[in-house]
Amino acid sequence: MKKLLLAFTFACNAIAMTTLASAQVPTNAYTTPNEWMKSKTQSWPGMVDGKTYWYKIDNMAKLWWSMDGKKWAAVDSGNWMDKSGKWIKINDGKIVWSSDGQTWSDVPEWKWEGSDGKWYKFDKDWTLWVN
Questions:
Q1: 83 closest CA partner among 57, 48, 117, 49
Q2: Is 45 inside any structural domain?
Q3: How many domains in the chain?
Q4: In a domain, 114, yes or no
Q5: HSE, side-chain direction, 13 A CA sphere, residue 58
Q6: Rounded Cα gap, residues 79 and 89, in angstroms
Q7: 19-75, pLDDT tens digit by residue?
Q8: In what order do the strands lie in the sheet with 79-81?
Q9: Domain contains 113
Q10: Is residue 3 part of a domain?
């Protein structure tokens, strides 16, 4: 009788463990992979007054913009806008942002969300990465 009770307990535990193991959700089931890739065009979108502009920087970290991605012009102010409406610019070799255009602070990890909902960042060599 003890052997039968022990075998029954073992079987119940085995079934319970199998059920729990198959019911667990993998830890990455609801997370987006954090895969950064070099931007093929080295440009990113931004919106100003409801219009999409394309931005890029040159090898001197000077900002350029285009409405069609073909004809480019220098941006005199050096500013572009992220998805949330913050102004961003390159200042003294780093990226800073401002909500009011007056007070500027460092952009963490040099990354921001573009108007297309993708995340962009520069590395130390001013290469643009997108996620």
A1: 117
A2: yes
A3: 1
A4: yes
A5: 10
A6: 5
A7: 434 444 343 333 455 799 999 999 999 988 888 999 999 988 899 999 998 999 999
A8: 79-81, 87-91, 94-98, 105-106
A9: yes
A10: no
pLDDT of res. 50:
86
Q: Which residue has the tokens 């895969």?
A: 35
C-beta of residue 90 within 8 angstroms of C-beta of residue 57:
yes
Host domain of residue 125: 37-130
- pLDDT tens-place string over residues 98-127: 999 999 999 999 999 999 999 999 999 999
Select from 32, 28, 36, 29 the least CA-distant residue to 119.
36
Between the alpha carbon of residue 90 and those of residues 61, 78, 114, the distances in Å are 7, 7, 16
